[in-house]
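Recall the central idea of this unit: under ordinary conditions, the amino acid sequence of a chain determines the structure it adopts. In this exercise we apply that idea directly, starting from the sequence alone.
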Amino acid sequence: MSDHTTSPAATTERRTVGVEEELLLVDADSGVPRAVAGNLLRRAEADRPRRDEPPRAPDDGEIEAELQQQQIEVETSPCADLSELRRQLVEWRQYTDQLARKSDARVLAMATSPLPVDPRTMVKPRYRRMVERYGLTTMEQLTCGCHVHVSVADDEEGVGVVDRVQRRLPALLALSANSPFWQGRDSGYSSYRTQVWSRFPTAGPTAPFGSAAAYHERVERLVRTGVLLDPDMIYFNVRLSRHYPTVEFRIADICLRADDAVMIAALARALVDTAAADIAVGRSAPSDDPQLLLLAQWRASRDGLRGGLLDPVDAVPQPAAEVIETLLDHVRGALTANGDLELVQQGIDRVFENGTGAELQRRAVRDGAEPVEMVRALLDTSIAD
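Accordingly, the structure predicted from this sequence is:
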């Protein structure tokens, strides 16, 4: 199957990008996740009319509750300039860490806890219904992702993008892998978050929809089964946002380093631009087998960048470096047009040289650190400038 693409023309009108990050809240001394999200949210609310006093809330974006009380979600505002996106990500990480310190806690940018934890679900009616419906799948679901929103012209363009980026998503997962431990044990995966999240019934890759009408019809049909509580439980790897004029990439782990999150956001935007350029010239979406896409996702979740990944076109094992280079070649035109090529190339080189978050965690343990020592050693990396 061929995979020719059209390079977007250079333009001054860059698509906006916004990022949602789910952060763990951990004890400042023991590193064990702590159920203090309510405290953080109350303090953040109290900050709003008194922003001249520390801790000062960032001017852009939002802080929100997440499923479990041992985590918090922060959101940037839409940004065309990735340096502005980075500024907001760093400010939100640092601000939430300041709030957490008031409860003798810290924020930790890891996609699963390296230490054993008993998750405590937030007291909200919808979350109670999720516990009733999905049982342990909800109760054990303490995982943290990085969700990237990229602006699109309309739902038609958005669905065209969704159909065209599926085969590239495992590479984003491999680059972001940051969850090797689960309940105090090495899971054997680089992104065990992916395995845990995949328990939800709609999580994962999708077959081509073909049109916005077909996409919405499919979503309505899934909701009508009664298996889902509501349309917000459409957990596709990439989906149309119900609240913003965006496509939302949901496959990545939260990245230990903010710079890696910016790299993932740049790649997501470039994938959207490249897909949109193909749509504009009438190039059909690839008819990828969702089962093969799922196997490619599993391989990326298992091995990260230190094993083989499946080639996005032929679904045969290839060295991870070659598959990432294929991704870079695929979006090079868009990255160049957006002025992001150097940022992404440096980011990819950094991750291969220094390691993903999963590799940094495992390396610390191999070097003799106990899990709690590893958490302490990497806490500051989560909020570094």
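Residues 154 and 181 are 40 Å apart (CA to CA).
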